[in-house]
Amino acid sequence: MGTVTRGTTNPNRLRRMDRWIAATHGAELRRAADPVTVDLGYGAAPWTAVELLHRLRTVAPRARVVGVEIEPARVAAALPYERAGLVFRHGGFEIPIPQRPLLVRAANVLRQYEEGEVAAVWERLCARLAPADPATGARGGLLVEGTCDEIGRRHVWVALGPEGPRTVTFATRLGSLERPSDLAERLPKALIHRNVPGEPVHAFLRDFDRAWAAAAPYASYGARQRWIRAVRDLTADWPVVDGPARWRQGEVTVRWTALAPRG
Q: Domains plus CATH for the chain?
């Protein structure tokens, strides 16, 4: 189920998303009996799935990755890259594996869809995630869906649990950033058409640009220090959920409810 994407992919393109997943979801992967991850719509080449396995195993040595593609020729081309912990399967949003995955990564998949289709896709994918377990404190599986540029310098993604959207993360290579609103062109499909006056995401990027401008004196210490100061100022008015350890990576994560489209 789904539509064939352009399949554009490059080695190391999803490094920022992978780094965030490993840092924020690593504990869930480690404690799971069968930490299965799905790389949904990996594209014309399997690089992102290969890299995801490597990065996840640095924090969860038993992690397994299933690359899922709707184009059969892409699956056939990926089969020579299978190894212990990495397999490739033909399929789409139905996620053709028997397990409930602990992680689904869908990068640059919904970009070609209509905004009105996103909610149904999210609901279908979230329904396939491993459920939360209040008895153990496990939060359940995680869906990470977003968009990045061709070489991974700028990336924005939404993180969703079985219950629905949780957070939005903005991540960038700070040395290439003129202003935070440069990330607007990489907003995921659920938000990219909402970057207009009156919508929360527009207000957030406006305030981020103002905080970035006010933090200009910190630029003499480097772009990282300027970013950290700007994000710290943002926390006065926006529900930022991470801290300096993530800000230093050129990231900031905000609660979904603060940026969700109106209406």
A: 14-172 (3.40.50.150), 174-257 (no CATH)
